[in-house]
Design brief:
single chain, 308 residues, alpha/beta, Rossmann fold, 2 domains, 12 helices, 9 strands, binds phosphoric acid mono(formamide)ester
Length: 308
């Protein structure tokens, strides 16, 4: 019977903290949890949530996932705890890991997350940093698996900013050996170190493609993915980015150039009629709300493995 496995790294800061086998196992667990074929209990376990930025999906899906496991969450709001007053991370992490069994953190600098993980004696989970959004990627690849059943022949095209979401897609894509194409303006390329790490993992170097032409990128693609052009904290760059990303919207014209069976993903929240049109978000190819639901199932699977 399928059961949670102990993850070798006992943390999830990056997609690279898990192996291909662990990733496949988490997705399989998530699928079974979603179908209610599996009952996993971690009664009385406590997940601490430290969110320096707003969240709907990540926060609520973690809360519901812990509740389904029989555990609970504590919302450690930085503005009402001593985190907001600037207590050093190494002190906060050592104290919280005496109360909580796991800690999920959404913050700006990835290095702060790494500092938490360094001092915490309990598993730390990346709930989004400037570098990666690995929990999002788990949900993305579960959604793709549900649609295409296996990852062979999947071509995933991400159109937009080479941001944290793109980074995690690239790294998970490399672990799964699927073709990932990134279409972005020259100023907004993914982080070179992420590209280099992915290329080291890919057995076939040509499976990761970076282009500035969305139309070339969607030709033959069966997954079209986008995210907001200006992430949280980049509000002052909004006007400039809106100009720079002209021509990078997923609209029905671009969708028609992809495979007939192509699905459309967006991690949400979206700016409708900017990076994606209203029509495409709600069209029959869209799996955006299944993708949002899958945050819950993959995080329940991830928590089960980290608690096992
Ligand atoms: N996709 C995502 O992380 O959504 P939230 O910001 O609402 O958590």
């Amino acid at each position: 019977m399928l059961r949670p496995i102990k993850l070798a790294n006992n943390k999830f800061l990056s997609c690279l903290d898990i192996s291909t086998e662990e990733l496949v196992h988490i997705l399989e667990l998530a699928k079974n949890l979603k179908n209610r074929n599996l009952n996993i209990e971690y009664k009385n376990k406590v997940l601490g949530l430290i969110f320096d930025k707003s969240s709907t999906r990540t926060r609520v899906s973690f809360q519901v996932a812990m509740s389904r496991l029989g555990g609970t969450t504590i919302d450690l709001n930085p503005t009402t705890s001593q985190i907001g007053r600037g207590e050093p991370i190494k002190d906060t992490a050592r104290v919280l890991s005496r109360y909580c069994d796991l800690i999920a953190i959404r913050t700006f600098n990835h290095s702060d997350l790494e500092e938490y993980a360094k001092w915490s004696t309990k598993p730390v989970i990346n709930a989004l940093t400037d570098l990666e959004h690995p929990c999002q990627s788990l949900a993305d690849f579960l959604t793709i698996k549900e649609e295409f059943h296996d990852f062979r022949n999947v071509v995933l095209t991400f159109i937009g900013d080479g941001n944290n979401v793109a980074h995690s897609l690239i790294l998970c894509g490399a672990l799964l050996g699927i073709e990932v194409r990134i279409a972005c303006p020259d100023k907004y390329l993914p982080n070179p170190s992420v590209i280099q790490k992915a290329r080291e993992i890919y057995k076939n170097d040509s499976l990761l493609k970076i282009t500035h032409d969305p139309y070339t990128a969607v030709n033959g693609a069966n997954v079209l993915y986008t995210d907001v052009w200006s992430s949280m904290g980049e509000e002052n760059q909004k006007d400039e980015k809106d100009k720079d990303f002209a021509g990078f919207s997923i609209d029905s014209h671009l969708l028609k150039k992809a495979n007939k069976d192509a699905i459309v993903l967006h991690c949400l929240p979206a700016y409708r009629n900017k990076e994606i049109t209203n029509e495409v978000i709600d069209c029959e190819n869209s799996r955006i709300f299944e993708q949002a639901e899958n945050r819950l199932h993959v995080q329940q699977a991830l928590l089960s493995c980290l608690l096992s």
